[in-house]
Q: What sequence folds into this?
């Protein structure tokens, strides 16, 4: 026996999920071909007009536009046959400087399909899938997904929420950004605080290469800002005023060892800023859209990454503040407090 109303409601939910899954590739196409930016700058268009403006196939554009209108990604005017990118949707799809720019999220979702055979095999063995062995474009997608949050919060609210840290950075501090990836977080801090020196560390060589390219593009002096390949267990030469970890601690196989090493690398009055995905301390508290998103990413990316490393504790992306605090204190820190938060992140301040 089953409840027909519940069944119909669930089928409706799954149809929505399938529509979203099928949309990921089309959103990526729209971004890569500049269709969102063209609709934003050039205004509404029919498929014929958009084909003339872009030089792309009208038949493909016609189907893409229809999908986007059916998805509420575009507005459609049946009297003119034109499709319009509303300003709210433009903030999500076209404006890279928007705080809710989400192209990186779609691209990251796309990479999980490429990861699927390796992760499926790992379900049987319990082994990990090393970061460098995952989908080749995943590293760029992860960086693109988190960049808007860092751009709109790191310098403006997260660092000021830490006790005395901005004053040190303005005077001149030594900073390590551990697990820096493509270096966006490091570069944001370096641009804001020209009297301080910054070293970004990551164990993935290709990410370090990308970070150095971004530094060169921004024209920052390599004597003040540099990126170096190192693990969280062996980075640095000590005496740091500030160590940061952005959405990286839960990916590390030995987070307790990381905490202990960070503690050794800090000055006695130094600060460790740990930015992690927003999560409650129990499963029921994570039954929401953000929790759903991060559990999916954690299953396909974060847990396999951690299990591929020494110790392989595998906190997962939804570890929660209580568990993170336990890990940090076990590594030798005396105090840990939540300094700031956003819908996607919590910011913890750890002091020796």
A:
């Amino acid at each position: 026996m089953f409840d027909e109303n519940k069944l119909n409601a669930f089928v409706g939910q799954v149809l929505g999920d399938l529509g979203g899954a099928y949309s990921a590739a089309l959103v990526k196409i729209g971004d890569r071909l500049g269709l969102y930016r063209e609709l934003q700058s050039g205004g509404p268009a029919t498929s014929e007009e958009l084909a003339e403006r872009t030089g792309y196939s009208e038949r493909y554009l016609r189907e893409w536009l229809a999908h986007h209108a059916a998805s509420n990604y575009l507005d459609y005017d049946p009297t003119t046959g034109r499709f319009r990118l509303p300003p709210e949707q433009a903030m999500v799809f076209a404006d890279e400087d928007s705080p809710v720019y989400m192209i990186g999220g779609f691209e990251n979702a796309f990479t999980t399909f490429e990861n699927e055979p390796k992760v499926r095999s790992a379900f049987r063995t319990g082994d990990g899938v090393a970061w460098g062995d995952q989908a080749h474009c995943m590293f760029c997608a992860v960086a693109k997904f988190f960049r808007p949050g860092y751009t709109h919060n790191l310098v403006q609210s997260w660092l000021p929420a830490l006790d005395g840290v901005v004053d040190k950075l303005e005077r001149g501090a030594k900073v390590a950004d551990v697990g820096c990836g493509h270096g966006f977080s490091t570069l944001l801090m370096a641009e804001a605080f020209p009297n301080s020196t910054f070293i970004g560390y990551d164990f993935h060589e290709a990410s370090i290469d990308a970070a150095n390219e971004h530094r060169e593009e921004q024209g920052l002096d390599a004597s003040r800002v540099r990126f170096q390949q190192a693990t969280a267990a062996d980075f640095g030469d000590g005496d740091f005023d500030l160590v940061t970890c952005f959405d990286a601690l839960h990916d590390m196989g030995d987070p307790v060892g990381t905490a202990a090493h960070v503690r050794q690398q800090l000055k006695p009055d130094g600060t460790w800023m740990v930015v992690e995905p927003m999560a409650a301390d129990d499963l029921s508290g994570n039954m929401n859209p953000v929790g759903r998103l991060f559990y999916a990413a954690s299953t396909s990316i974060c847990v396999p990454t951690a299990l591929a490393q020494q110790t392989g504790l595998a906190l997962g992306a939804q570890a929660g503040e209580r568990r993170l605090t336990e890990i940090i204190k076990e590594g030798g820190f005396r105090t840990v407090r939540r300094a700031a938060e956003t819908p996607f992140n919590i910011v913890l301040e750890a002091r020796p």
